[in-house]
């Protein structure tokens, strides 16, 4: 396959490129915006996103761009978190400290609208979103098992590598960062399924489909 990877974060592109090089994979990496994909119509037979599309500030525009670059027989697949389990607990902590990290303007990008933001974990909302752009999708529930040496190790990895945690560090003072770190660690300890190490189960959806 000929593969192109796109992301808005330079650091994540560097990480992805390093992993691809270690596997001897030839991939073109582009920094870009999924609201305005820098590709021609009918460019891709497959468009996929792993917990990335869910951060679209204007979901309708992102869906329209996916429909535009997909071939008529192309396929779409992306993953999205469900609002339950440890991820929901972590998100609630961020909401208290920073505001909702997954909250976005409505699908037309009007931040002043009374319309609620898209719930990426709602199957019906996802179907309607992509149906408006000629793509029929179905959703399957899955669960991701995340493991680490300990809750402390996982918490530290997030705070030193994950974009949410890094962004939070820039927005909070030292006491605020310490409090956020401690609250997240408490949630990870509460959700831990492996007393001898660390394991949590994270429910999510895989949405799959193609142009009608």
Low-confidence stretches: 102-113
Helical residue percent band: 40-55%
User: What would you call the structural class?
Assistant: alpha/beta
- Average pLDDT level: 90
Structural description of this entry:
The protein is an alpha/beta fold and 212 residues long. Helices cover 40% and strands 27% of the residues. It has seven helices and six strands, in the order E-H-E-E-H-E-H-H-E-H-H-H-E. The protein has a four-stranded mixed beta sheet with strand order 3-4-6-5. Strand 1, helix 1 (10-22) and strand 2 form a beta-alpha-beta unit. Helix 3 (85-98) packs antiparallel against helix 7 and helix 5 (151-161) crosses helix 7. The two termini are 24 Å apart. Mean pLDDT is 90; it is low at 102-113.
Q: Can you tag this structure with a few keywords?
A:
single chain, 212 residues, four-stranded mixed β-sheet, two-stranded parallel ribbon, 6 strands, 27% strand, globular
Overview in brief:
With 212 residues, the protein is α/β, with parallel strands linked by helices. 40% of the residues lie in helices and 27% in strands. The chain contains seven helices and six strands; from the N terminus they run βαββαβααβαααβ.
Topology:
Blueprint lengths: L2 E5 L2 H13 L4 E5 L12 E7 L8 H11 E12 L3 H14 L24 H9 L3 E14 L2 H11 L1 H9 L2 H18 L6 E14 L1
Parallel strand pairs: 1-2, 3-4
Antiparallel strand pairs: 4-6, 5-6
Helix pairs in contact: 3-7, 5-6, 5-7
């Amino acid at each position: 396959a000929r593969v192109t990877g796109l992301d808005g974060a330079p650091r994540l592109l560097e990480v992805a490129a390093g992993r691809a090089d270690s596997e001897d994979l030839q991939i073109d990496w582009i920094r870009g915006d999924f609201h305005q994909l820098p590709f021609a119509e009918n460019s891709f037979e497959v468009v996929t996103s792993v917990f990335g599309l869910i951060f679209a500030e204007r979901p309708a525009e992102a869906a329209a761009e996916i429909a535009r670059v997909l071939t008529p027989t192309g396929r779409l697949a992306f993953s999205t978190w469900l609002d339950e389990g440890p991820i929901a607990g972590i998100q609630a902590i961020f909401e208290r400290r920073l505001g909702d990290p997954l909250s976005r303007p409505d699908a037309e990008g009007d931040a002043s609208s009374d319309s609620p933001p898209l719930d990426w974990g709602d199957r019906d909302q996802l179907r309607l979103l992509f149906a408006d752009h000629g793509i029929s999708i179905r959703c399957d529930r899955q669960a991701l098992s995340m493991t680490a040496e300990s809750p402390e190790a996982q918490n530290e990895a997030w705070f030193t590598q994950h974009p949410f945690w890094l962004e939070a560090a820039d927005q909070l003072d030292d006491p605020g960062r310490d409090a956020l770190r401690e609250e997240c660690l408490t949630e990870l300890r509460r959700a831990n399924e492996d007393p001898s190490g660390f394991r949590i189960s994270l429910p999510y959806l895989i949405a799959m489909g193609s142009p009608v």
